[in-house]
Amino acid sequence: MTSHVILALHNQIVMLNFFESIRTVLSGSDGEDRFKEAVKQFEEVYRDREETGEYRCVSEGRKAWEMVEKARGKGSMKEKVLELQREQEESKVEESEKVLTTALVEDSRKELHQ
Fold it and tell me: Residue 91 falls within a domain, yes or no?
């Protein structure tokens, strides 16, 4: 729990510093030009044009998050839950078929005995 709070605070500080830097750049007389140049530089550094076309830091973050989910058991557990749900649905269908078959057989027997 404590590590989550520390991480959340760290992320907030990073974001606050990020936006403060943007405000500083924009407040100067050549702010718009400097901002455009900074955006261009950011795209050159972080854009992954060869693979997905999205920012490399985003795709790397997504991969890292998948690893975290699997390490915590969420990724594999999700698959297990889905498999269990499929098995339960198949079992319900099989049970329904048995009940219907039994009812049909009994109805047929009653008709034969009448």
Answer: no
- Report how many domains make up the chain: 1
- 23 falls within a domain: yes
H helix count then E strand count, the chain: 4, 0
* Residue 15, domain extent: 1-34
The residue type found at 97 is E
Torsion of CA 92, 96, 98, 104, to 10 degrees: 180
Query: pLDDT tens across 51-90, in order?
Result: 666 777 777 888 888 888 777 766 566 677 778 888 888 8
pTM score, whole prediction: 0.36
> Encoding tokens for residue 97?
């078929």
